[in-house]
TrEMBL record:
<feature type="domain" description="LCCL">
    <location>
        <begin position="23"/>
        <end position="118"/>
    </location>
</feature>
<dbReference type="InterPro" id="IPR036609">
    <property type="entry name" value="LCCL_sf"/>
</dbReference>
<feature type="domain" description="LCCL">
    <location>
        <begin position="532"/>
        <end position="624"/>
    </location>
</feature>
<protein>
    <submittedName>
        <fullName>Uncharacterized protein LOC106152716</fullName>
    </submittedName>
</protein>
<feature type="domain" description="LCCL">
    <location>
        <begin position="426"/>
        <end position="489"/>
    </location>
</feature>
<dbReference type="InterPro" id="IPR004043">
    <property type="entry name" value="LCCL"/>
</dbReference>
<dbReference type="Pfam" id="PF03815">
    <property type="entry name" value="LCCL"/>
</dbReference>
<keyword id="KW-0732">Signal</keyword>
<feature type="signal peptide">
    <location>
        <begin position="1"/>
        <end position="19"/>
    </location>
</feature>
<feature type="domain" description="LCCL">
    <location>
        <begin position="146"/>
        <end position="234"/>
    </location>
</feature>
<dbReference type="InterPro" id="IPR051957">
    <property type="entry name" value="CRISP-LCCL_domain"/>
</dbReference>
<feature type="domain" description="LCCL">
    <location>
        <begin position="272"/>
        <end position="369"/>
    </location>
</feature>
């Protein structure tokens, strides 16, 4: 019966269709939209005449947009507050949610997707006309505005995208949106995020719902995932085209940027900070927001894990800021506010473990880097401000000092040299640097040597790490390869302008009142006496060592074992300047095969250098005038003990048990009288 009656009504309506907008379908407070408009005008305009008094009647579902089975005239009162009259409704499509609310004395219910729905066309209302689905409602301060009702799942893409005016979208959020669909970001959110949940994340007061102004924010490089006000958001790393923020009215900070958070900084102070998560890098956060300016960030707790970090105290621009903060600053494991400074180009980055976080090493230049003001604040408070590259550490005796943190591989040229040029470089070395990067030299090392591994080589007891001071040294022509403290260094014969040594290397001698030269080492004799000596290898030549270091008289040389092999040697007892000192020592002095100390002294010119085989070393002969040569004080010590003083070119020959030793000159089968006997002894007998 009802269907027939309605068909009649429709027929009347169609007959009257010519009478344009005055024509309308009759409805009462129980008539559902689908009964009156749904069949004839499912997706177009449908005019209905409503009676008064529809605050009672059939139930309705939705706000702004209603399900097709809602009573049209009651829904109209709910949406507009107007009781009865001419109503223009429009079928709507693709609605995924219907949010229930109490408006104008009527309660509507919430529900999920329905096949049919409708909204009211409000071209002239108190708000000056709203879009389909919006309601004109009180937005505070006595103002009315068109508002889009949302539920806790609606996101920008399926709501504000079509409703924003100049990038601003006014929405009505229900209470309880701590739950709802996912949210990405912090202060600025990805458009796929639930708007009303994002609103609670942004402002705790919005947990009870209300009118929210959503602002389009355009492209973003990365978004932080954080926990706030009972809402956990996800991070998003990589560029996105569109985003939104929740507008803030009044706050303690008095106006932060949309991407900032107003944060209690303690002592009643509030300030705008950039909220980050444990993965966001400096170049995707601070740099995007503030360029090279100081960046105040709020870090969450738990950044022991997170994005990769490279460096120590100064980090590469692609390092995760908050994880770097937890690495650099001891009490950052619980999160907090830190000040980040841009540091510009750096040559190299030490990888270290601090506060249970390991940073990666990077031994190439990076044009953009950052550090934290707080890294060295303990030293600043103690009146000794540090540089940004430094860390404030216990430097012994419980005193705080500024030091440069290194790892076991980073080399002089990209740390000490790049930070301090020709000045001293106080560093802190980690433990375990007997393994690490390459090292060239002994006591003085080339600029491409790993500073901390060289320190283990040069300074006793440094394998457990500690503070040492590296000093730049001038040009060297030779770097000796030696084994010390389980570190074997490399050998290099090359004129090399940039080198370094350690202030602490010879401190044992300094305590004994001896000031060793940088190229010297402090030798502790069996009787505990100390002396400054030069450590060389089996290839080190006189010209590159004693001669180069200006120690031509009584040049105390520490020889390693095994110099039966080594560099070439020319002469006997007196050797050419190009001869390897320690191999010559094995040749000249019996008992030097296992190494030890010898004293070499310059000998000036000779006309010839005879070769000979002694102590398993065969020296070459050189029968030409040559201006620089050397000999050893110890060569003739057996004769000296017997009361005989041999000349430097003489050797002490043992004559057996019965006879005393004699001093004699070593010749070979080519040596001429004039170059030797005549030259050295004149008319005297020639032994
Ligand atoms: C939109 O923004 C433009 C430029 O900022 C302004 O001229 C215009 O009045 C705004 N329109 C509305 C509806 O706010
Ligand atoms: C090391 O020193 C050499 C020679 O002075 C120089 O050419 C080179 O650039 C330096 N290397 C570094 C990394 O400083
Ligand atoms: C060795 O001495 C000669 C002079 O006899 C000198 O010309 C030469 O430069 C010296 N060699 C080195 C490597 O210093």
């Amino acid at each position: 019966m009802k269907a027939i009656a309605y068909a009649l009504l429709v027929a009347v309506y169609i007959l009257q269709a010519r009478c344009e907008e005055q024509c309308s379908l009759p409805a009462d407070c129980f008539t559902k939209w689908e009964e009156v408009c749904g069949e004839l005008f499912p997706s177009s305009l449908c005019n209905v005449m409503c009676p008064k008094g529809c605050n009672l009647g059939e139930r309705i579902r939705g706000t702004g947009t209603y399900t097709g089975d809602s009573a049209i005239c009651r829904a109209y009162v709910h949406a507009t507050g107007t009781d009865g009259g001419f109503v223009a409704a429009m079928g709507t499509e693709d609605k995924r949610f219907f949010i229930g609310s109490s408006l104008n004395g009527i309660r509507s219910e919430s529900t999920g997707a329905r096949s049919t729905s409708f909204a009211f066309l409000e071209e002239e209302n108190e708000c000056g006309g709203c879009q389909l689905g919006e309601i004109c409602t009180d937005v505070g301060e006595g103002k009315k505005a068109c508002v889009l009702p949302l539920d806790c799942n609606a996101n920008w893409d399926n709501s504000c995208e079509d409703y924003n005016r100049n990038g601003t979208c006014l929405v009505m959020c229900p209470a309880g949106c701590t739950r709802g669909s996912s949210v990405w970001g912090t202060d600025i959110y990805r458009t796929a995020s639930s708007i009303c949940r994002a609103a609670v994340h942004s402002n705790a007061d919005l947990a009870k719902g209300g009118i929210v102004t959503v602002v389009a924010q355009g492209e973003q490089a990365s978004l932080a995932g954080t926990h706030r006000n009972g809402v956990g958001t996800m991070g998003h790393y990589g560029d996105i085209d569109q985003s939104f923020s929740i507008a803030r009215s009044s706050e303690a900070c008095g106006g932060c940027e949309a991407f900032e958070t107003c944060q209690d900084l303690g002592d009643g102070q509030f300030g705008c900070v950039l909220s980050l998560d444990c993965r966001q890098t400096w170049e995707d956060s601070c740099k995007v927001r503030y360029g090279q300016e100081k960046c105040r960030v709020l870090c969450p707790e738990g950044c022991k894990n997170g994005g990769g970090i490279y460096g120590s105290d100064i980090y590469t621009s692609n390092s995760a800021v908050c994880r770097a903060a937890a690495h650099a600053i001891p009490d950052m494991k619980n999160g907090g506010v830190v000040n980040v400074l841009s540091q510009g180009q750096q040559q190299g980055f030490a990888g270290t473990v601090r506060n249970e976080i390991g940073s990666g090493a990077y031994y190439k230049p990076k044009p953009e880097t950052f550090s934290f003001v707080e890294t060295t604040s303990a030293c600043a408070t103690a009146g000794t401000p540090c540089g940004p590259e430094q860390t404030c550490q216990d430097v012994g005796d419980g005193k705080l000092g500024c030091v440069l943190q290194l790892d076991c591989r980073i080399y002089w040229g990209i740390t000490c040299k790049s930070h301090y040029g020709d000045g001293p470089c106080r560093v802190i070395c980690p433990s375990g640097c007997k393994s690490g990067g390459g090292v060239w030299g002994t006591d003085i090392y080339s600029n491409v040597s790993a500073v901390c591994r060289a320190a283990v080589h040069a300074v006793p007891d440094l394998n457990e790490g500690g503070v040492v001071t590296a000093l730049p040294q001038g040009e060297q022509v030779h770097f000796a390869s030696t084994v010390r403290n389980e570190v074997t260094t490399g050998r290099m014969f090359k004129r090399w302008p940039e080198t370094f040594s350690f202030a602490e290397a010879t401190s044992a001698c300094k305590e004994a009142g001896l000031n060793c030269e940088p190229h010297q080492t402090c030798h502790v004799h069996e009787d505990g006496k100390k002396s400054c000596v030069m450590a060389v290898d089996c290839y080190s030549r006189w010209s590159d060592t004693c001669k180069f270091q200006h120690g031509e008289d009584n040049c105390r040389v520490q020889c390693p074992a095994g110099c039966v092999k080594g560099g070439s040697v020319h002469g006997s007892d007196v050797y050419t300047n190009t001869s390897a000192v320690c191999r010559a020592a094995v040749h000249a002095i019996s008992g030097m095969k296992s190494g030890g100390l010898v004293t070499a002294t310059a000998q000036g010119g000779r006309l010839t250098f005879p070769g000979s085989v002694r102590n398993d070393v065969s020296s070459g002969n050189f029968h030409r005038k040559w201006d620089e040569s050397f000999a050893f004080v110890e060569t003739t010590s057996a004769c000296a003990a017997a009361g005989l003083t041999c000349a430097p070119h003489e050797t002490c020959v043992e004559m057996g048990e019965k006879e005393p030793p004699v001093c004699a000159m070593q010749l070979d089968c080519w040596v001429k009288w004039a170059d030797t006997c005549k030259h050295l002894y004149g008319d005297k007998p020639c032994p």
